[in-house]
Amino acid sequence: MGIFDIFKSTPNIEMLEKNKDVKGLIKALKYKRDEKVIWKAILALGNIGEPAIRPLIRSLKDKDPDVVFAAALSLGKIGDPAFESLINALKDKNGIVRRDAALALTTIGKPAVPHLIKSLKDEDINIRKEAARALGFIEDKRAVDPLIKILKDRNTGVRLGAIIGLDKMKDSRTVEPLIQSLNDKDWGVRAWALKTLIDIGKPAVKPLINSLKDKNVNVRMASAIALANIRERPVNLLIHSLHNKDVNVRIGIVIALISIGKPAEKYLINCLTNENADIRAGASLALEKIRDRKAMKFIFKNVKAEKNELVWKVIKRDLENMMIKAEEKK
Fold first, then answer.
1. What is the model's pTM?
2. Where are the domains of the chain?
3. Closest C-alpha to 242, from 202, 176, 286
């Protein structure tokens, strides 16, 4: 029960603001009967400014999460005078305090960006991590390069915070650094790097195809998964890359085409008559894994016409596998 719930009268926010009664306004944040009262109190505390900063920072530790949230919004409205206190709050032991201090900085928006970028170099891990996330939510392009730099931070949480921040901005400058993060020792960082590359979409396609030749298997496999899940479905570009001299690239392309499935089928069928033997073999393998009956007649037609012995063996094997699977389904 909030402090005002025991009274019949509604808190007079206008009077409290006029008297600069910070304590009274913070108590008003607990008034549950009318949300309008709470929002008026948030605005009033923001209008009072500096005298309200310390009490509001203390309120970030309140047991009531609604009060904590409201205090963060008030600090955000105060803006520049609250920066130093909010940055210090980012290293609080209480995770909720850190989260809502970051929220307050996010609420301030673009004026907070230089302060947050500076905080990416702070010795405190929590400050670096929360500053990275806050920059992501503000979505200011000035933060892209500083966030890229901390993708190599020694702390997992900071690296993860940087990627989460970059994911919000979807900037093509982040593609190559994110591909390197596909080999991060932490699975969470790898997963977010993969998601961000998928979200970036078309600008990431060619670098991802190139990364299929990476010496690290984690990077190669994650790149194939990303290529399969990009919305623009770069099927033509993937098929064209089947003639790449690097076997790992060809394997990755086939994996991506298999994952794309039926939307890639008509392109793959056309590739069965391509002049390049690697493209014909890769298309056949992908179609066999997709296992569509319609593709069987095209593969059967081309196995008879295939002149390259190695490709002929690949297509013949794929056709036999499809026929076996078709029989099993009967």
1. 0.67
2. 1-108, 271-330
3. 286
